[in-house]
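User: Continuing from earlier, I have the next pair ready.

Assistant: Great, send them over.

User: Here they are, in order.

Assistant: Folding the first of the pair now:
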Amino acid sequence: MESTRSAKDFSDKVNCKLKTQALAGLIAVSIMTAAPQLSSAEDTIEKAGVAVGVTAGNMWFLPLKAITMSVGAISGALSYIVTGGNAELTQQIWSDTQQRPYVITPELARTAIGRRPEIDAKK
């Protein structure tokens, strides 16, 4: 009976150690996978800010671009009629009013504000 009890105590100690080691391993893996996400929280905030800014910009830009393109198309057609068929002038008006960009993208916004070394240094 004594040997059965010591074997059971030994088995309980081994199971307890295994559980402790498994828990420690699980915690270590969790920390290692969460650490990059915690360090990139600033990038997430920056990306969200860029998305909000681009969306707000497009709320104004898209309707204004549509108006500009419409007025340019009508003006180009009228210039062709008024100038007696000057196709070069009409093409110039159309190309000026229908140039890209059609929407504001994050790349376009970065180009417009220029390079910011403090943001590039973080990455």
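And the other member of the pair:
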Amino acid sequence: MAAFAATLLRGPTELREMRHLLTSWLGRTDATAVVRDAVLLATHEAAANAMKHGQPESPVSISASRDEAGGFTVEVTNLGGWKEPDPGHHGRGLALMSELMSEVEIQTKTSVRMLSGASPPEPTLRSETSLEIPVPKRMAVLKIFEKAAKAVSDRGTDSPTSEK
């Protein structure tokens, strides 16, 4: 199977098209949906990081290939320089990529190489309707729900179904 290659020139608006092209390429493999989704999300995150932290006029190159064992190698590179994030701002991109892929290697500040095994561990299901989430991730999910609940309560009691 031919390798995947894309170059993003115009910025974040091209991420959507890259995801569609990569989805199509991954769909021609016999990889599981879990593996395809992990490769897609990790690649999107790496490309978004390359755009955000690299030089604005520098193209972002993405390549992906499949090895004989069924794993994937993805490389994302921005040939420009590196812009440090704002002080106190630490994104979750590298942690997300590390969670999704079996190996993440920062080759330079503007180049990342990621490896995915043929079959990452499937999520642990406790029942048909609940998903086991590790404690640190569970806390992050709870914070998201707490923020959403606060936003709803801050809006007051006005709702489409309330009487006025």
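Worth noting for the second one:
Residues 124-131, 157-164 have pLDDT under 50 and may be disordered. The domain at 4-116 is CATH 3.30.565.10 (Heat Shock Protein 90).
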